[in-house]
Amino acid sequence: MSVSIGSQGDSVRYRSRLQQPETERHPDTHPLTWRLRDDGEVIWLEEYLRKDGYESVRRALADRDPQAIIATMKDANVGGRGGGGFSAGLKWSLTLQGEDIPRGYLICNADEMEPGTFKDRLLMEQQPHLLIEGMILGALANNSCFGYIFLRGEYVTAARVLKRAIEEARHAGWLGADINGSGFDFDIIVHTGAGRYICGEETALINSLEGKRANPRTKPPFPGQSGAWGKPSVVNNVETLCNAPGVILNGADWYQDLSGDSTDNGGTKLYGISGPVENPGLWELPMGTTGAEILDRAGGMRNGSELKTWLPGGASTGFLLPEHLDLPLDFNTVGKEGSRLGTGLMTMVPQEQSLVALLRNLEEFFARESCGWCTPCRDGLPWAAKLLRALELGQGETGDIELLEKLAADCGPTLTFCAHAPGAAMPLHTALKHFRHEFEQGISKPRIKAVEG
């Protein structure tokens, strides 16, 4: 498998690859991947049931205690695996519930358009029933009447697999009316998106789901109070929901213990790596695993290349240096170094790669994917891409670097309508911080001053 910056569609005959063999994965230590087969074939319902499938739902339906599910998820400290790291249990606790509150929706964000990210695809294409089971638990906790899997349109194989798995679950009584004779009704459909990165923002996703333009919404109200079609709605990432069955079946303490003493973040994480390494792919490892260990598992840099810098979790995270490889990859530690864990899929950049060219490529992507709702994002990102293009061609002007720094600052947190622009600004800001000399090499002429008077 070869992965560049940019997740890929089915058209290029690509599969997310788990590098860990079955002999290294166990139910007690690998809740997300222990069921997966070395041949990569789909785990359909019959096999899934033989491997403890739907046991957590069976138990939760018998208890019918939504608050107990929420409390367990909160105690387990399951941070959102879509990039934000916000506690899933805390998010669930904020959903409006009560006799006078209409039942709402549980929405799985399966858009996965973060460049360099391909972890959710693995789970959906090879283990769809784990996601379905997690969604049923989320529906029980949030009193949801219906579920949507908002799927990236290019994930054609995932769509086919998920639709068949949903039909299997319906036929077996795990979805639909009166699930497993419990009196609880819940069903799921797959909704394929039209290909917008902004749909990673939960309210833009909800707008798109409703058939509207994918612009973020003003918050408050938050989706937990008024989401899809005005009803309480919860949006969770694929990997986040896939953690729920193991947590409910084995308990919060078990989940916390999976990560050991190196981090306060609980559980395991699907870590991955792409770029010029010997064996790109995915591993399920304890939260807090270092970048050095993941790079070592990938066989190191390809053909003896020297590592210049790396992104810890997708294109909207900040660049780190080789000396940061020994840091635990968790939400807190990475944040203290001026970056984010993001999706936890590392992109390695070799010494011979121009950072100016790489940034130009990224900022053109972010500029193109802006919804255009607010000025810093709509106008600032194309401007940054234009400046970077000039620097890449050696046609930059004096003051361009300072202007890029200002544009990055103007797109910072709390200054834009959503997190799209801050995400685009982070790799730019950190690249200027660590590799300013490369940008300076692109300046060839003084800036022309406007004529006064």
TrEMBL record:
Q: Which InterPro entries match?
A: NADH-UbQ_OxRdtase_51kDa_CS, Nuo51_FMN-bd, Nuo51_FMN-bd_sf, Nuop51_4Fe4S-bd, Nuop51_4Fe4S-bd_sf, Soluble_ligand-bd
Annotated stretches, region: Disordered:
1-32
* Record field: compositional bias (Basic and acidic residues): 22-32
Domain (NADH-ubiquinone oxidoreductase 51kDa subunit iron-sulphur binding) spans 356-401
Keywords on record? 4Fe-4S, Iron, Iron-sulfur, Metal-binding
List all Polar residues biased stretches.
1-10
- Kindly list the cofactors needed: FMN
Q: Report the family membership.
A: Belongs to the complex I 51 kDa subunit family.
Q: Which PANTHER family match?
A: NADH-QUINONE OXIDOREDUCTASE SUBUNIT F (PTHR43578:SF3)
**What protein name does the entry list?**
NADH-quinone oxidoreductase subunit F
What species does this protein belong to?
Marinobacter azerbaijanicus
The taxonomic lineage of its organism, from the top, reads: Bacteria, Pseudomonadati, Pseudomonadota, Gammaproteobacteria, Pseudomonadales
